[in-house]
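User: Continuing from earlier, I have the next pair ready.

Assistant: Great, send them over.

User: Here they are, in order.

Assistant: Folding the first of the pair now:
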Amino acid sequence: PIDKEMAKLVYEICDSKKLIGITLMSDSVDPNVITASPEVLLQEVKNQLLLNPKNAVQMAINLTKMNKIHWGSAVEIFRQSQHINELTAYCMDCLPDSAEASTWQTLVLETNLKMNPTLAETIFQTKKFSHFNKTRLGPLCEQKGLYHRALENFTDLKDIKRVLVNNSAHI
């Protein structure tokens, strides 16, 4: 068995950045202990994403909740690496429902509508996001057979009429 406390001590004596990862993966993290810069912490999230994506999500969530990193930086890491499931998990936990996050809300919903419409529907059901681009998502909802969601997102009467006339049996 690995002695985590001994490993921490060795890394601390060597002033190793590996200590950050060990500290962040422990069950209880004291935010005052983490003194690394946001850049170093984000790099650790990137490193962890390569090794263990699930741990990277949890690490990013912990760091965001401790106000050690900004949610936008973490979202960008998951997006750039094309880890869609991890991006979605992180956003569901940390993305604020604000106008500032509207682009990211749209991205998460759009990506999931394209790749996993069932998950997108689940996200809609949570009502966690309300600042997404409805004009952009309405047609995708219609294409994926989520007619009720398409009707909620369309604002143009022509679109609403089309959905109702062509899909009334499914609504």
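And the other member of the pair:
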Amino acid sequence: APDASFGRALCRREAGDPKAAIAHIDAYLKSKPHRTHTGDAVYGRGLAQVAISDFSGAAKTFAGLIGEHPEYAAIDKAHYELGWALKSLDKHAEAAEHFSQIARNYPDSPLAAEAWFHVGEDHYENKEYAEAATAYRAVKNKSPGSELGEKALYKLGWAKFQLKDYNDSLI
């Protein structure tokens, strides 16, 4: 039964057996590919691939989820995981695009502040300090007083310093 296969996949992943989880998810998806939990199954497959350091496979899985199931309830999480998989493959510009998707298209997502931070980091590494400052400021505004907000404030100061905006670099 497909639902039992999906349940076994979740159990295998939680039990630390991602390869078995992938096998059960594949069986579930092959049985009836347009079921209620298809998005969850594909997302779970991507997470299992990350767990075995198959970042290329995970990137393909998450990209497929985003392309084939744009209505998926946790599409922001799919973009986030795709961003991390791409970062792990040293595809930083592509990763930044997916983090940017979250920041811009899902501003109420719990991942939005962290996504903005990654966007800022990408701009900073590319010496695009004004854009980095904008992204860090968005993090600071979304997460004031949090550890991430404080880190963004620090990085905002450095971006302003690089822009020779010394007064604002002492935020």
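Worth noting for the second one:
Residues 120 and 132 are 4 Å apart (CA to CA). The mean pLDDT is 90.
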